[in-house]
């Protein structure tokens, strides 16, 4: 019995360490992407995007454990407090950041990789009412999505891609490509140009 309790205690300590490391990662990623602050403390206290993410990590664990109604209630409480709606079934990677937060909606079957950044008003939505299929998009690692963009359906936005503000994306976006407009048109940056630099150079990404 003592050995079992000791093993459970170690598992609990390991889980707390992993959670603390995840929080530090989230904070560092947020500070690196938000020029308005350089303080972990300020970011932890004043970022609705981070608050929504941290609640999601808890509600997602509950969802996976079969506690679906409590998970939904927790996610709705976070929505009321932050203006960010993340379904507890959505899968979100490491160092995710939502700048400003308000109006972001992430659907149940959305999958988000590591080092992804969304601005306010982004929707990762579905195009089907069939609950038995994947209805929402998959975002690869390092994707940036501008304010007000809508990415709809079971499509993939590849690693390192950039989606412009207010774009409506309903088709695949290749890795390292740029998608802008309604409906979105996809192009690759000029040879040798970093897609992240294209984000700043192309006005269509901000309109």
From TrEMBL:
<keyword id="KW-0677">Repeat</keyword>
<dbReference type="InterPro" id="IPR053376">
    <property type="entry name" value="Serine_acetyltransferase"/>
</dbReference>
<protein>
    <recommendedName>
        <fullName>Serine acetyltransferase</fullName>
        <ecNumber>2.3.1.30</ecNumber>
    </recommendedName>
</protein>
<dbReference type="InterPro" id="IPR005881">
    <property type="entry name" value="Ser_O-AcTrfase"/>
</dbReference>
<comment type="pathway">
    <text>Amino-acid biosynthesis; L-cysteine biosynthesis; L-cysteine from L-serine: step 1/2.</text>
</comment>
<dbReference type="InterPro" id="IPR018357">
    <property type="entry name" value="Hexapep_transf_CS"/>
</dbReference>
<dbReference type="InterPro" id="IPR045304">
    <property type="entry name" value="LbH_SAT"/>
</dbReference>
<dbReference type="GO" id="GO:0006535">
    <property type="term" value="P:cysteine biosynthetic process from serine"/>
</dbReference>
<dbReference type="GO" id="GO:0005737">
    <property type="term" value="C:cytoplasm"/>
</dbReference>
<keyword id="KW-0012">Acyltransferase</keyword>
<dbReference type="Pfam" id="PF00132">
    <property type="entry name" value="Hexapep"/>
</dbReference>
<comment type="similarity">
    <text>Belongs to the transferase hexapeptide repeat family.</text>
</comment>
<dbReference type="GO" id="GO:0009001">
    <property type="term" value="F:serine O-acetyltransferase activity"/>
</dbReference>
<dbReference type="InterPro" id="IPR011004">
    <property type="entry name" value="Trimer_LpxA-like_sf"/>
</dbReference>
<dbReference type="InterPro" id="IPR001451">
    <property type="entry name" value="Hexapep"/>
</dbReference>
<keyword id="KW-0808">Transferase</keyword>
<dbReference type="InterPro" id="IPR042122">
    <property type="entry name" value="Ser_AcTrfase_N_sf"/>
</dbReference>
<keyword id="KW-0028">Amino-acid biosynthesis</keyword>
<keyword id="KW-0198">Cysteine biosynthesis</keyword>
């Amino acid at each position: 019995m003592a050995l079992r309790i000791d093993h459970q205690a170690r598992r609990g300590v390991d889980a707390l360490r992993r959670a603390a490391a995840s929080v530090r990662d989230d904070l560092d990623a947020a500070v690196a992407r938000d020029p308005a602050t350089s303080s972990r403390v300020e970011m932890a206290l004043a970022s609705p995007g981070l608050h929504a993410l941290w609640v999601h990590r808890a509600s997602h664990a509950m969802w996976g454990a079969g506690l679906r109604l409590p998970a939904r209630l927790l996610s709705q409480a976070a929505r009321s407090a932050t203006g960010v709606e993340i379904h507890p079934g959505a899968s979100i990677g490491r160092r995710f950041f939502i700048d400003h937060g308000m109006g972001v909606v992430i659907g149940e079957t959305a999958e988000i990789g590591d080092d992804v950044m969304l601005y306010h008003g982004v929707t990762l939505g579905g195009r089907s009412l069939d609950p038995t299929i994947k209805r929402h998009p998959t975002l690869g690692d390092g994707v940036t999505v501008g304010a007000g963009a809508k990415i709809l359906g079971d499509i993939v936005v590849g690693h390192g891609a950039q989606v412009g503000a207010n774009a409506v994306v309903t088709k695949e976006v290749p890795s390292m490509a740029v998608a802008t407009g309604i409906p979105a048109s996809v192009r690759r940056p000029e040879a040798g140009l970093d897609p992240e630099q294209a984000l700043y150079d192309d006005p269509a990404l901000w309109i």
